[in-house]
């Protein structure tokens, strides 16, 4: 099915990514990895296969995550995007997702969760424990998580060792390199 504004709002996708499409991604090193994940989306979701996009600012990591979310929802699944730095506040403030569940509850059970912008310097120690708990719970339930980060693989292992150990068995690490897609005007991938 085709997606509409309500779908984007329900997934909590920022407006700058609403019109992201695969056809607008220029040839780059991670395009093929994204295509492979999308081509096998049913199997990837049903087997809890995660994907972690890492690389410098503005390389299209969030746009790639949104494309995966869109595919899951278009096929009748559910997806949710959370900024890493907002996970702990959403728990502490008991942020509501809808009439039936909190955002924290939704993040634990949604078919596909995107944790966007996972960086150590922006997440306090207590927030880190919430993130690790969420990742571990989803891993244990066989639910896939997509993570985007500006951190290197080494920084992730150093700062999120427990989560990275849990994820290593079912996670594809994809480096996003190439030009900065926001370098001249702040537009996101496919905008």
Outline the secondary-structure elements:
Elements: H1 5-11, H2 31-39, H3 41-46, E1 50-54, H4 61-74, E2 79-83, H5 84-92, H6 103-109, E3 112-116, H7 125-141, E4 145-149, H8 153-159, H9 161-167, E5 171-175
Parallel strand pairs: 1-4, 1-5, 2-3, 3-4
Helix pairs in contact: 5-7, 7-9, 8-9
Outline the structure in words.
There is one protein chain. This protein has 191 residues and is of the alpha/beta class. Helices cover 43% and strands 13% of the residues. It has 9 helices and 5 strands. Strands 2-3-4-1-5 form a 5-stranded parallel β-sheet, with helices on both faces. The longest helix is centred in the last third of the chain and has 17 residues, at 125-141.
